[in-house]
Specification:
7 helices; globular; D-amino Acid Aminotransferase, Chain A, domain 1; Phosphorylase Kinase, domain 1
Amino acid sequence: MSRRKKIYEGKAKVLYEGPEPGTLIQYFKDDATAFNAEKHAVIEGKGVLNNRISEFIMTNLNAIGVPTHFIRRVNMREQLIHELEIIPLEVVVRNVAAGSISKRLGIPEGDQLPRSIVEFYFKNDALGDPLVSEEHITAFNWASTQELDDIMALALRVNDYLCGMFGGVGIRLIDFKLEFGRMYEGEMVRTVLADEVSPDSCRLWDAQTNKKLDKDRFRQDLGGLSEAYAEVATRLGIFRDPNSALAEGS
């Protein structure tokens, strides 16, 4: 990748120019961050596991008609994706109380919410990605009313699919974060799922034991992050067993 122009580097991924106009290469790093990057470590193999898990999920979402930026996996750490104009919002879908909603509203972690809740956060690291309302979003022109409608509909559709997919392998989908972008096709503009869907962006608990299988293992110093991600990949059928997943990640 050193011969390709770097377009952007985030906390967990790097974007490089793609082989064709309108494409990018998305590279998954082994970096783990939490609390707006105040906590940082390098977890060997994490990027490989996230690449494979996100490839699996994005491929399935494309197959059911959810438009995503994903085109194909290039290698162990890279994906070919469509270049998008990113909408500056993090979209969080919550099914069970955990994380910030428990702290803000005093809801015990693990309580089932009355219904799935969609929250919006303004993507701005310097401000700590603050929670915002639809009024803020439309007033500051971060997204149009139509785009918000599309985002809500897509986020809830993704939630339905993921709940069923993870539920089928004994995993509870607690909550997850999505990002969206605008894909220009001539004079047409489509709202498209961007970024990744992986244990980095989802809270995943074992349905029987509530064992955490996501980045909370890093946030809360529980250890075993790569092993948890490998277990998710194995349950989804991406690998035959956790050992082969870890071997590929190493």
